[in-house]
Design a protein that fits this description.
Shape: globular
Oligomer: single chain
Number of domains: 1
Helix content: over 70%
Strand content: under 5%
Largest sheet: none
Structural class: mainly alpha
Number of helices: 4
Radius of gyration: 16 Å
Distance between the termini: 32 Å
Amino acid sequence: MKSILKTIDKTRGLDYNETFNSAKNLKIRRKLVPKLRSALTSYFSASNGQLTKWLDCLHKSHHSHQRLMDRGKADENKYQVHSNNRVHDISNDL
């Protein structure tokens, strides 16, 4: 789904500076969800609710990263996430 979203024009994508349920993003989602659903039908039959939840998760991730970048703390967060992932990978191997 991320690869499909990358192919969408930036002007038609969600606005990550706004909240997920803002009027602007609701208008965009009304057009985006049917397009995603038709693009995914050959791989997965997703409902509108599932696609909305997936978009919500992706939006939350992008929105929080955007806020960190605006504050200048994105590099610190990248290091922390990488460190946490390494610890998680090692604990899974044990």
